[in-house]
Write a structure and sequence with these properties.
The complex is a heterodimer of chains A (about 290) and B (about 250).
Chain A (H helix, E strand, L loop, with lengths): L8 H12 L15 E5 L5 E6 L2 E12 L10 E8 L14 H15 L10 E3 L3 E13 L4 H15 L1 E2 L2 E4 L2 E4 L8 E2 L7 E8 L4 E4 L3 H6 L2 E7 L5 E5 L8 H33 L5 H4 L6
Parallel strand pairs in A: 4-6
Antiparallel strand pairs in A: 1-2, 2-3, 3-6, 5-6, 7-10, 8-9, 11-12, 11-13, 13-14
Helix pairs in contact in A: 2-3
Chain B lengths: L8 E3 L19 E2 L3 E4 L3 E4 L3 E6 L4 E5 L12 E9 L3 E5 L7 E4 L19 E8 L7 E3 L12 E3 L3 E4 L2 H8 L11 H7 L5 E5 L3 E5 L3 H16 L4 H15 L1
Parallel strand pairs in B: 2-6
Antiparallel strand pairs in B: 1-5, 3-4, 5-6, 7-8, 7-10, 8-9, 10-11, 10-12, 13-15, 14-15
Helix pairs in contact in B: 3-4
Classes of the chains: A alpha+beta (about 290), B alpha+beta (about 250).
Chain lengths: ~290, ~250
């Protein structure tokens, strides 16, 4: 069974010692993220996000299905995560590790349960037809901080995604191809992002965006999900060393600043992509969508 | 490189090797290095893509490549992490996702049954590979079997371990690392007045120790950046000047 080499005692001692002296192994400041890059694919709803050496690819797809019988007015929205052996041989197919389970649950809580996507808007014919939006997340390379990058990638891909336009005439549903009618964006309510804090020592040292080595050595971690208006969707602190309440409050305010940065970056990238696609400025005329 | 040829020769796996390139020594037997496979009776086939290098004096031929996975070879100096210990052996991890190497507890300088070192799981050791067969776990030693001296091998205390590529580790371990390997970064750092010690493992690790945490980080960062961006000699000098200026 393949097994990852664990950090040695020397590395453990050194990383913590350096943190106590205010230094990080890769020379970043405590609240500094690695270089975050976002690329959209040729298709709608494909986002490729890299943060340092961590890389995540997200693909969104839509299909028409029947809604759940207990929720006839809601569409279906699922997020599936996959940590493939490509990211690290320690991940095996069809045997989810703890990391994978925690990651998918956190994304679920952050994006799905915070109602970032209005599932009612996915309903086509009540009780009979609805859109099923499926988000597939693939971890291509794992160098720490999967949660923050995954959440960013999922939100980016969903906001970039366009579903085919539809119309209903006399109970007859028509789904148009992109050539007939320009696809329409999802009805997106707010953009939550995750910010993960790692704690060291007795919980008094706090760093952002831990890489894989730092992640293996932290004594506890805390993930805060919020949008840029400061509305917190969830806070997850799963075990580990207890942390002072004052520290957590400070973390929340740091998280808000970071989320604002993420939000600006995403808006900017989306605008760039829209501009790239909108050659000749004809997209507005092609759209058959009504203003909300 | 030890080759006498003026231009570099690159091979792909399965290529035919021109017989004129294979060194022929009147007395010594031909030695095959990494990346080549002998198919009896007399065929040589490269198994990796890389530069074909020959040494006519030693009558040896091998392929230089910057591969990802470390394959132990007899005589390599490696840095391993103790995984656990049993009655007579330490089990040492050389790289991720490979089986452990064994290090006899008596293979240390001046070690007897009573004075053998006590290494906890996670301790680092600098060792030499003394047995490496294809389908067996490699065996390590921390003492020269002929002289009984450690020659710098043994447990590594303190310091920090950095991962580097295998090609970089090989360049750093060359006898003339400055002329042949084109790495001056450690020499330049030393010349800049930093006091530190290093140990390079052929399995893609470099251990750096110093009294100051900052120095360790600086040395590690300089070596890693040289490796990742494959800097030339001049760029390495520039990098060292920049890092030293930032630190002070």
């Amino acid at each position: 069974m393949p097994r990852e080499a664990e950090p040695s005692l020397n590395e453990r001692a050194f990383v913590v010692q350096a943190l106590q002296e205010g230094l990080r192994v890769d020379g970043r400041a405590f609240d500094q993220y690695r270089q975050l890059e976002l690329k959209f694919g040729e298709q709608y709803g494909v986002a490729d996000v890299t943060l340092g050496k961590t890389r995540i690819l997200v693909k969104v797809s839509a299909e028409v299905t029947t809604p759940y019988t207990d929720r006839p007015f809601d569409g279906i929205f699922t997020i599936t995560t996959e940590l493939s052996p490509m990211a690290s041989p320690a991940f095996e197919v069809n045997r989810p590790t703890e990391t994978e389970v925690l990651l998918s649950r956190l994304l679920e809580k952050t994006v799905r349960r915070s109602n970032a996507l209005d599932t009612e808007s996915l309903c086509l014919v009540a009780g009979q037809k609805c859109w099923s939006i499926r988000v597939d997340l693939h971890v291509l390379s794992h160098d720490g901080n999967l949660i923050d990058v995954s959440c960013f990638a999922v939100v980016a891909a969903l906001r970039h995604f366009r579903k085919p336009d539809t119309s209903i005439e006399g109970g007859h549903l028509t789904v148009y191809t992109p050539a007939e009618r320009e696809p329409v964006p999802l009805s997106w309510l707010h953009s939550p992002f995750c910010v993960t804090f790692s704690f060291y020592g007795e919980g008094e040292i706090t760093i952002l965006d831990a890489n894989l080595l730092e992640e293996q050595l932290r004594v506890s971690s805390c993930t805060i999900s919020l949008n840029r208006h400061g509305e917190i969707c969830q806070i997850a602190k799963l075990g580990g060393t207890p942390v002072e309440a004052a520290t957590l409050l400070q973390c929340a305010s740091v998280a808000l600043n970071k989320v604002k940065e993420f939000s600006t970056l995403l808006d900017q990238k989306l605008a760039e992509d829209a501009k790239r696609r909108n050659k000749g400025g004809l997209l507005a005329e092609l759209s058959a969508e009504n203003e909300r | 490189m030890a080759t006498a040829q003026s231009e570099r020769i690159f091979v792909l796996p399965g290529d035919q090797i021109d017989p004129s390139l294979i060194p022929s020594h009147p007395k010594k037997a031909l030695r095959l290095g990494p990346g080549l496979r002998h198919i009896p009776p007399n065929e040589l086939v490269p198994t990796v893509a890389g530069q074909l290098v020959t040494d006519p004096r030693k009558n040896s031929i091998w392929v230089e490549y910057n591969g990802g996975r470390y394959v132990p070879t007899v005589g390599d100096l490696v840095i391993g992490t103790v995984h656990h210990s049993a009655t007579d052996y330490f089990y040492v991890t050389l790289s991720s996702y490979t089986s452990n190497a064994i290090l006899p507890q008596l293979a240390f300088e001046m070690a007897t049954k009573k004075t053998r070192p006590n290494l906890n799981p996670g301790a680092l050791v600098y060792a030499r590979v003394c047995l490496a067969n294809r389908h067996m776990d490699p065996e390590l030693e921390c003492v020269s079997p002929s002289t009984g001296k450690a020659d710098g091998l043994g447990p590594l205390n303190g310091g920090m371990l950095f991962e580097i590529s295998l090609g970089m580790a090989r360049r750093l371990l060359m006898r003339k690392s400055v002329e042949e390997g084109k790495v001056v970064v450690l020499e330049e750092l030393g010349a800049a007045g930093l006091a530190f010690e290093t140990a390079v493992g052929r399995n893609g690790k470099i251990w750096v120790n110093s009294e100051k945490t900052k120095t360790v980080l600086l040395v590690g960062r300089a070596v890693k950046e040289t490796d990742e961006k494959s800097l030339t000699v001049d760029q390495q000098k520039k990098l060292v000047r920049k890092l030293v200026r930032e630190m002070s």
